[in-house]
Amino acid sequence: MTATETTGSARPAPAAGPARLPSPFALGLVRARVELLGFLRERDAVVFIFAYPLIMMAIFAAVFGGEEQAFDMGPAAVGIDFAQYFLPGMIATGTMLSSFQTVAISIAVERDDGTLKRLRATPLPAVSYFLGKVWQVLLVSVAQTAGLVALAALAFDVPLPDDGRWLTFAWVFVLGTATGTVCGVAFSTVPRSGRSASAVVTSVVLVLQFISGVFFAFPSLPGWMQQIAALFPLKWIAQGMRSVFLPDAFAAVEPAGEWQHPAIAATLGIWLILGLVIGVRTFRWRRRDDG
User: Fold this and answer.
1) Nearest to residue 179, comparing CAs of 278, 45, 270?
2) Which residue of 79, 184, 231, 282 pairs with 100 in a disulfide if CB–CB is 3.0 to 4.6 A?
3) Residue 13 resides in a domain
């Protein structure tokens, strides 16, 4: 057999195909690590988002330590330790800060500095980018809430709920976090630039905190303010957390005279769907002046 025949009979090696990317879920976990490291490097964000509820809990509980929050429950006024009443509101606002505020500001900044534009040009699927945000929010929210509960129980003797109430805590926490996250994505298109994002988003969150029973007892707020607060998720997250950490008798002081678990789930679910629809329709990878 000649060399020519040998060469002619040899088959060329198949060309190597393009490398297959990991699944969007796996890429989302990788992106979550990037998001978490980026969050931790922003020390001011860590202080105002992660530590803020802890600091506020410590300040208010120390200032009003030993005092009772009194409620008119029929023929008599019933009191509860201020720290115990304040804890559900702090958990609710911590959830909103870690989800809505963090996501809305971070996306607006990443759009403004070109990060989203560069990510759009990579093979990273959009769903992996958003999964990274979700995982980062969940990790921060869990750590933040665990710190709040530990601080309240160990430093201020706040009684913890029984086993049955932790199930209510779980679904209110998960649904509230998910709602805050998707609403943050939808709201991220409102600020006109990354520089204005912090002022715009923080202002909205502060107003909601004051009218949603975070800093004040919700039943003591004016009726018109309660009605406005009932349109937004934070009021319902706080009410759900009160149903976990306050005695059942205190449901009577709520505007409806009960904890309204179905209404909490329905309202948060509506906001979750609304945030998804608006987020999908309005999300932009580029700045307004970038086409």
Assistant:
1) 270
2) 184
3) no
Spatial CA neighbour of 252 closest among 86, 80, 74: 74
In whole angstroms, give the CA distance from residue 247 to residue 242: 9
Structure tokens belonging to residue 88: 């559900």
Angstrom distance (rounded) from CA 182 to CA 130: 9
Q: Is 233 exposed, middle or buried (0-12, 13-18, 19+ CB in 10 A)?
A: buried
Query: What pLDDT does 18 receive?
Result: 57
pLDDT tens readout for residues 126-150: 888 888 898 999 999 999 999 999 9
- Select the more confidently predicted residue: 193 or 7: 193
Structural domain including 59 reads 23-65+77-286
Neighbours of 55 (CB within 10 A): 13
Cα end-to-end span (Å), the chain: 66
Answer yes or no: is 1 within a domain. Answer: no
Number of compact structural domains in the chain = 1
pLDDT in tens, 192-207: 888 899 999 999 999 9
Dihedral sign (CA 52, 56, 166, 225)? negative
In a domain, 136, yes or no: yes
* 14 occurs within a structural domain: no
